[in-house]
Structure formats: structure tokens, C-alpha cells
Amino acid sequence: MDACVYNTQTHAKMSSEQSVAQIEKTISKLVSDCCHAKLWKEKCNCEEIKTIQKHIRIWIKNINKLEPILFNNDKIHLRDIDVFKKKNKAENDSNNKQRENIIVCILNNKIPEQYYNLSLRWRNLKLELDTYIQKLCKEQGIDCLDNIHCIPKAGRGHHYDFNIIINYSYEFMTEFKFNASCVNETPQFVSLSKPSQYLNKNFENWFYKNALTKIANWYDLELPSQEEYCATIHNNIVECMKPYKEKYDNDITFRNFCKKIDKEGIKAFIQVSDIVKEFLTEKLLNSQKNKHYMCYDDGKIYYDKLNENIYKLTKLIYKDNTNYIYETESGMNLEIKLRFKNGCGIQFPALQIQRKIPNVNELKKLCAINNIKAPRLKKDICNILTENNVMY
Facing residues of 178 across strands? Predict the structure, then answer.
């Protein structure tokens, strides 16, 4: 009987956590204690084990009968719930698109009920999204929930991922953040292309003259015209930089040299330039105002929203390598990083903006000043300071 109990528990775990292929592989290794039968291929004399085998076969048969869901030029299968566990940076864009497609389909009731019946992780994700919608309703003072409609908005021209419409009239601009329980844990809360419009000097012209020429001369590459470079560099694929990008992707020595020139060039530019804070403040307020965040971390979905005063720049505090550090009207600091998004020094310059969080020692000093016992982890220190209304 011990063997039967063990295998029942194993089956339950496999049903909720593994794909069909993984389950077949795992079960093929299980052997019954009572008669040494291979549970996947052979019959067991124990009735409890026979029941397990029967239900496994039924479960897999039901999964194989499921039709994929067609949405946004993509197909969603039961196994695609695994995308909420994947953290491969190289596949980040495609994984994020699939996560967002799944969320939209759940909110719009496009997912068949069988998905929730056959997968604990699908069911839990739906429950988490239901809870998130309740928090949106509470935020807006909505007492009765009659209807939900979610429109995908990710892509160029939009600064959020979903427009969630509740009861046909309440709209919530929502941005999805993966692998974070709050916005402060993310690498950025906004990325702005064409950075020169927010700077008092033209970065693209400066980098072309002072950095790109070094890369071209060192590796005997043809230098594109400055006019074409500055006109087309703000894209993921830049025709005039194609030879550079191909060499960057395939030659580690060249790639490391580009990283070196990129860091040196941007650092030098930052020392002779500054942010036009009025323009950047206006842009942040217009693009980020009234934005709600949906943060996903380890199977849980969290609601977050930034204090709008964090978008209002007041003064430059210091410059650090590739970053401008600015104080904001909220009392919090912003880190404004100047970088290339697609290959260091190669293409697509942008400003990556996030909240500047003090280091652990600085946070612990704040705790001591306010008579708060500091936890060990940085994340927990931030949480306890927030709970006690201490600005950091």
C-alpha cells in the first residue's frame, strides 16, 4: 500500500507540473514495488496501481484531443503554460509575447474549460488574474463586475501592454512585468528611443564621430555616411550597420571591442551633456500617467502603481558611467541609462529609465535612523520601509 500512496502523490505532482512528454518519460522509470511491473507498459496486480495507470491514460488522451487556441497569429497549446517559468534572455521577446497572448485569452474567456480542468497551473493563473481584476475594481471603486474585455496594445506607439476595459466604461492601461513582484524589481519601467530629443547635445552625431569611427577603423569596416546613420539608427535592424551587426554576432573579439568602445564613448558623452529635464518630465507624465502594473513572480500576480511624482525631475544628483542620476519631486531618485538596445555601440540607442534604489547598507542606515529592525534581504528591507512610509 505504501507504493500505491507514493505513486498517487507522484501522479498528482506530474499532472500539474510537467508536460505530457515529461510525464511519459518519468512514468516509464517507475516500477511497482508489489510485482515489479513497469507502470507505463505493464499491468500491475495491485488494484490501486491499475487505477493510477487508467487515469494517466485517460488524462493524456484528453490532452491530445485538445485543439490549440488561435490568437494574434499564434497558436496556444496546453504545454505553453511553461512559458511562465522560462527565463531565457535570448528568447525574452517571443516568450513575453506568448505570455501576453495567454493573459489576453484568459481575460477574454477564450480558453476552453478543459485547460483549467486538466492543468493546475492554468487554473491557478486564471485565479491569479481574477484576483488582479478585483484589485483594479477596488482601485476604481467598482462594486459590481459585469464585463471584462482585454485589448493587446504592446508594440511601437504604445507604452503599455493591455487596455483592460471593465463594465464597458472603465479603462486600465496595464503593463505586464515578468519575474518581479513590484516595478522596483524590474530592469526598467520605461525605455525611450531617439534619446537626443531629451538631451542638450545630439548623441547620435557625437557617437558617430567619436566612437563608431574607432570601431570602423580598428576592423577596417566601411563607415556609413553620417546622414544615413543618424536617420536609420533608431531601429532593431539597420541596413547600413548590417556588416557591423553580423560581425558583432559571430566574432567574440569584435564584440568585446564594441562593448569597450560603447562604454567609453557613452561615459565620455554623459560627462559633456545633460538631460533636458522639462522635456523628459513631460514625456514621462504623458506616457506613464494612469498606468497600472501587472507583476508576475513565481506563480503569483501582484498589482502595483508608481507615484506620479517620480516622473517629475527636479535636479541632477550625479553622473555615473552610462547613467544620469536625477532626484524627482517624489523624493525618490531615477537612474536614466543611455545605451544601445541591439548590440553595444551598434544600433538602436535609447534611454532606459528605472528607479534608483539605494544599496543594502544605505537602506539599513535608513532603518536604523527610523528605529526599524532591518531584515536581511534587500527586497524585504524595501518592503518594510514602504510599510513604515519611509522614503528611500
Answer: 296
CA–CA dist 48, 34 (Å, integer): 11
Residues forming a β-bridge with 156: none
Listed in sequence order, the DSSP H helices in the chain are 2-17, 20-27, 47-65, 92-107, 113-118, 120-140, 203-207, 213-218, 226-232, 242-250, 252-271, 277-288, 360-369, 378-387
Distances, alpha carbon 311 to alpha carbons 129, 185, 196, 280, in Å:
28, 17, 19, 8
> What is the spatial order of strands in the sheet that 300-304 belongs to?
148-152, 162-166, 170-178, 291-297, 300-304
Closest to 78 in 3D by CA, of 37, 42, 114, 124? 114
326: cell is 536625477
Q: pLDDT tens-digit profile of 284-307? A: 988 888 899 999 999 999 999 888
Rounded to an integer, what distance in angstroms lies between the CA atom of residue 359 and that of residue 51? 56
105-122 pLDDT per residue, tens: 999 999 999 999 889 999
Alpha-carbon distance 377 to 364, whole Å?
10
- 247 vs 251: CA distance, rounded Å: 5
State the maximum Cα–Cα separation within the chain, in Å, rounded to a whole number. 81
Distance CA(299)–CA(6), nearest Å, equals 26
CA distance 325 to 316: 6
In the chain, the amino acid numbered 43 is K
Residue labelled with grid coordinates 491499475: 50
23 has pLDDT over 60: no
